[in-house]
Batch of 4 targets.
Target 1
Amino acid sequence: MSDMNVSQVLAQMRSMSLQAGGQEVPESAGNTDFSALLQQSIAAVNDTQQSAGKMTEAFETGAANVSLADVMVATQKANVSFQAMLQVRNKLVDAYQEVMNMPM
């Protein structure tokens, strides 16, 4: 999640807010693709988990260049990024359910 560009997310949120208010959206604000940004974030979380798993395996097999502290830090980074992605997913599901329950 640290690789996720927060300014792009904020720009998209501003653009959606302007559209909802019926205002003109500046061209620079509409250039971000939310689905691509979400896919990049998921891929970054997956990469973090994969590298933590590889470090853990290397430590378990006795590789000399991997310390326990490095393994623990990598594992905690993977855990934090996964928990953050889980919270984003929960918020998206909540937003979807709220939109679906709106009267037409």
Target 2
Amino acid sequence: MQLNAREAMHVLELRSGPQGHPAYRRIVQEMHRLIAEQAGHRAIADAMRFVDHSETSLGRLEAEQRFQSTREWSAPSL
């Protein structure tokens, strides 16, 4: 796979989010680490400020729960 810096930034930031599939998250987190360490492009990796390396167990479910609680809070009462 070949990506320029702009493409890598887009893919890594998008697919590393907590809502991302765990397999995608692991792959792009490792890609981010390799860009910085093995390829030696630390400045480019540092520019990818929104790559998420946090651990999450619920993934998309957490986002759905937040959405549901917001929806219940903002729903008009009848």
Target 3
Amino acid sequence: MNTLFQRLMQGAARLTRKGDLQAATAAIQQALRRGAPADVEVDARADVEVEAREVFEATEGPTSDSFRRGKYTGAGGTRDYMLYVPPQAGSRPLPLIVMLHGCTQGAADFAAGTEMNRLARAHGFFVLYPEQSSHANPQRCWNWFKHTHQARGRGEPELLAGMTREAMARHSIDASRVYVAGLSAGGAMAAIMGDAYPDLFAAVGVHSGLATGIAKDLPSALGAMQRGPVAASAATSGVPTIVFHGDADATVHPGNGEHVIAASVHKEATVEQHAGVSAGGRRYTRQVHRAPDGRVGAEHWIVHGAAHAWSGGSAQGTYTDPRGPDASAEMMRFFFGAIKAPSSSFVQ
């Protein structure tokens, strides 16, 4: 094998074991630019995917972390996933955040773009990244717009809930601190998961997504995405929800964010409005919806001038806006402040 190529790949492996995903990705990209040997197959479309399959094999233990692939099969089918296990695993039950990628993305790409693993390493929580199959959807979108995938106990919601429960069974995870978030189609599916499984997920994060029940088929989905929903969602699970949406989003109409919020807040909630500017220069408006008892039921972040991209994300992943406020950090903050009462079992 080419010596330089081998040295760069070995360096990427060491960086991965240390948990420095950005540096590992950069090392792999440098190796690919230098030219891989003829006997090494390279997928030029997804450097991050190559990284995830080939390199992430750190040893679990009290001072190390891991990020590796797995496969889950349940009543709703079979899907691959990636699971980040923090160095604090085993010391005590830790939170879990389930992250649902958008169309054309994969688990490793979404992890790189959101940098949620970096936060998980620093703050001590697991991150599960389910991965949609191109056989289930040619664009690898979660099928949020089909009526067969919008309810408890069926389709992709049942599959994702089962995958989450399996992760909880295999690792020491605090059942009262399990959360779900997603981007675009993943954001829409995250909203569905919160509505369908409020006993499983303590809070929901929807980035550039849509409310449950806004569409029942592809034509109605495209209409809601292009023009905004024509009616508010009937879903009222009451699960705390944080929404991020760019007001220059030309893929999913920003009005959808308002409908996600409307479906999750108390009808008598008061709204506190705050304006700010991110470190990258993006202006934003943060609306805090507070129930009559004082609890925060929802937050709506409107990122001014932002398009269809994860706010504050890394350029190492697709569909990110590094200039925006850090959606990953704000979702983590919101989630960890929304802890439900522990439950010894889940409603089936």
Target 4
Amino acid sequence: MKVTITKFEECKPYKAPGHDDTVHTMHMQHKSMGCEAPYWVGCSYYLPGATAHLKSSPLDKIYIVLDGELTVEYGNKEFVKLGKGDSIWIGQDETRAVRNESNAVATMLVVMPYPA
């Protein structure tokens, strides 16, 4: 049976490239934790004013806002505010930035494949 269970207290912090120190990121499911899925799942906490800077990635990504509100900049300077329950898929090589412009902590689930 291929199953990996991770309790919240077992999640592993990691440093996401291009993210301010005010963004706390952790793996919830990842091959480094024994998960064999072809993608990984992370959780990011954005403190007020926190930013993931504008950059592109060769990998697709899905962001799901679990709590709070985040502003996502993508493509040709398009902006969208995402609230609780909202999601966005950003394709490979698309630029993106994420900012918490509110006064409350925002929580985002991240789903991404591994690099080839």
